Amino acid sequence: MKHDIVIIGGGPAGLAAAVAARKAGIQDILILERDSSLGGILNQCIHNGFGLHTFKEELTGPEYAARYIAMAEEAKIPYRLNTMVIDINEKREVTVISRDHGMETIEAGAVILAMGCRERPRGALNIPGYRPAGIYSAGTAQRLMNIEGYSVGKEVVILGSGDIGLIMARRMTLEGAKVKVVAELMPYSGGLKRNIVQCLDDYGIPLKLSHTVVDIQGKERVTGITLAEVGPDRKPIPGTEEHYSCDTLLLSVGLIPENELTKEAGVEMNRVTSGPNVNDQLETSVEGVFACGNVLHVHDLVDYVSEEATLAGTNAAAYVRSQNGETEAKAESHTVTLKAENGVRYTVPQTIDVNNMRDQVVVRFRVADVYRDRSISVYLDGVRVQARKKKVLAPGEMEQVILKKEDLQKYPDLKEIVICTEVE
Q1: Counting CB atoms within 10 angstroms of each CB, which of 2, 38, 228, 321 has the fewest?
Q2: What residue numbers bound the domain in which 163 lies?
């Protein structure tokens, strides 16, 4: 079985990529989704705040997903549900397994990776204590409440201030639970500022920065936890312990791009993002394999996921057409490396082909700490060409700069682009 483009994942990234590839003229597209419905994680995100950039209105997660599902169905893009991809190789052969079709191999002209991300589990935290009932990752609790219709607890402590944890603090409060505290290991929150205000401040829920859980009490079910303050080395400070009685502990301690398949395909990975390295076409180190959305790097807004996925779909379509000899030959490539320095943790993409890039490339990144009154600067071979002042830069908010082809072509021997923060 062969398809021009195979998309792994039917969430917001996969759907947007499929719609864009169809608009770019590719008819033979297949979406593979392991869940029983399209839409991905958005189906359980019943709060609003989605779509402000993409649709210029405020939608819930399921409403946002429904818009893209409708676009895919209108374009008659085929998809297969309850279908698990178990392997991809460098030849773009995708091995899938499903109850209806058993195990089969699909050959792809191009592959788009859109598998999203997963939550970091308790096991990664090394918290002492038994393994009682009542400990959930924030996303699991969200699914149990919003899709399955269960109540998960009455007295709640949340560890980690990622966006899902903040949103679940509000969600559980609205369901009648008492959220006693949100504790965060770092000296800053990992979530969006608007979520801290709307989900914690508006409900009087305290946020304790530089704190972590050092003990979990209870054998059958959680009966309480002990919080302690941590020093600059992130280690608990003796004598700062506080006890909270609770029957539920939610963990919102970070998201990890779902990249086991990506590694199987031999793709070069990025140790900072835990996603693949990509060029300005969002193509990985394996030719014809593209990546977008949270599998590439964890986003703060789904609107940016859709934007990025649209680019991946369009570029995958161009790749397929070039393989079929339908497009003009490319110019000789001039690849330039992007470097993240002085407070910028990473960039996506990691390289740009100046001669074959679009008129402009959006470079997205996150900063390493909370910075005040700094500029985001861009240097081309040591010459500063952009500087944008920001009152506050925070790791929870994704930043971006736009690089224009005409600006880069003024430096014919350009070797590296540096994106950094600077104190003015």
Answers
A1: 2
A2: 121-253
